[in-house]
Amino acid sequence: MDKPALIAELETALGFSLNDLTGQEALWKVIEHLAFIDACMAGRESATAADLERAALERLNMSVCRNCYLCDADGAVIGLNLFGNDLAQLPVPEHPGWRRLRVLNLAENKLTELALPAGWQALQSLDLGDNQTLRALRFDGPLPALERLDASDSGLEHLVVPAGMSALKHLDVSRNKLRSVVFEGDCAALEWLDFSGNGLEGFRLSKGFDALQYLYLNNNALKSLVFDAPLVNLNTLHLSKNQLDELPGNLFLFDKLESLYLHNNPLPAVPKGASGVPEGEHDNAAVAIRNYLRSIIEDAPMPIDEVKLVLIGNSTAGKSSLIRYLIDGVYDETIPSTHGISNIIWDSNELGFKVNIWDFGGQEFYHATHRLFLTENALSLVVLNLERTRQASRNWR
Ligand SMILES: Nc1nc2c(ncn2[C@@H]2O[C@H](COP(=O)(O)OP(=O)(O)OP(=O)(O)O)[C@@H](O)[C@H]2O)c(=O)[nH]1
Ligand SMILES: [Mg+2]
Hints:
Layout: H1 5-14, E1 19-20, H2 24-33, H3 39-42, H4 49-60, E2 68-71, E3 77-81, E4 103-105, E5 113-116, E6 125-127, E7 136-139, E8 148-150, E9 158-161, E10 170-172, E11 180-183, E12 192-194, E13 202-205, E14 214-216, E15 224-227, E16 236-238, E17 259-261, H5 272-275, H6 286-299, E18 306-312, H7 319-328, E19 341-348, E20 353-360, H8 367-373, E21 379-382, H9 391-395
Parallel strand pairs: 1-2, 3-4, 4-6, 5-7, 6-8, 8-10, 9-11, 10-12, 12-14, 13-15, 14-16, 16-17, 18-20, 18-21
Antiparallel strand pairs: 2-3, 19-20
The site of guanosine-5'-triphosphate has 15 residues, from helix 7.
C-alpha cells in the first residue's frame, strides 16, 4: 500500500519517518508485544477486523508506540502517535488527510498553541498532556466524535468548549493555569471532568451535564461554585484547597454523591449535633453534609411563631413601662424598678406570634451581663430618656 499523502507530508515537515502499523501482522505484533490479553485476545478466534482496529488504536496511544501511524482498510490514516518529540506546532493541520483520524497523541511536546480544525470530524481521542508551553487551545468548531481530551500538565489559561461536543466523556485539564472555563453548550455524555490544580476563582455548570460522575475542582482558588441543575449522577466531588465559604444550595439533591472532599476551605463549621462532619485531611463528608443541608432545607419552610425582644437602657429610662403599655395599652405608674431580668411572654392574637421579652434591670452593675443576651437572632431595643442625659445615648451605642 502506498504511503498516505498525509504521512508523506508529515515526514517531510518533521524530518524523520513514521512507522506504519497497518496490516494484520503488524497489528498483532503490537497487540501481543504489549501483552494485550483482555477481551479482544480472549475472543481471538472471532476477533473481527474492526475489533483489531479498535485494539490497535488503543495501543497506539501508548508512549511505546511513539511515531507510529495506523491506517484503515481504505488506506486512510486513523491513528497517529507523535508523543515526546518536542514539537512546537503540529505540521500541516489543514491537510485533508486528518479527516478520518480517530486517535491523536501529541503528549510531551512543546506545543505553544493548537487550533483544532472543524474538519476533524472523526477524532475520538486527543492527548495533549505534558505540553507545558501550551497557552492556547482553540476549537474551530465542535468535534462531535471526540470522547476523550487530555490536556493535563500543560499551560492553558482559558478554555472554551464549543456546543455540539456530544460524545465527550472524559475531559482532563488538570494542573494547567486555567483562570476561566466556558462551556458553550451542554455535554450530555460527559462522565469525568478534571480541572484540579488550576487558578479558577469561580465555576458554574449550566444544565445538561446529567451524566457527570466525577468532578475534580480541588486545588483552585474557588470563591463561588454554582450548579444550575443538580448533578444527579455525580459520585465524587473534590473541592478541597479552595476559598469556598459556602456550598451550592442544591448539593443535597445529588443523590448518588458518595465522596465529597472539602478540607482546606474557609467553610463555617457545621453544627456538631447535626452532622458529625469529619475534619480529617482526607475525610469524606458526603453523607454528613448532604444530611445537614437536607435538614436545613426541610426546616426552612417552618413558620416563625416566636420572636425574641431584648430591652436595655439605663435604670428609670422607662423600659418596663414601655412593655406594659405595649401589652396592655396602659401607663402604670406603680411599676417597681427591675432587678436582674424579667422575662415576659407576650402572646398577642393581634400579632399572630409570641414575643419573648427580656426586660433588663438598668442599674449599672447589670450592664456587663446585657451583652450575653444580645444574640443575632433577637430584636434589641435600647430605651433612652433623652431629657435626663445626653451622655446616655453615647453609652448605649
Ligand atoms: N414622664 C414619664 N415618666 C415615665 C415614662 N416612662 C416611665 N416613666 C417613669 O419613669 C420611672 C421608671 O420607669 P420604669 O419603666 O420602671 O423604668 P425602667 O427602665 O424599667 O427602669 P429599671 O427597671 O430600673 O431599669 C417610673 O417612675 C415611671 O413611671 C414616660 O414616658 N414619661
Ligand atoms: Mg424596669
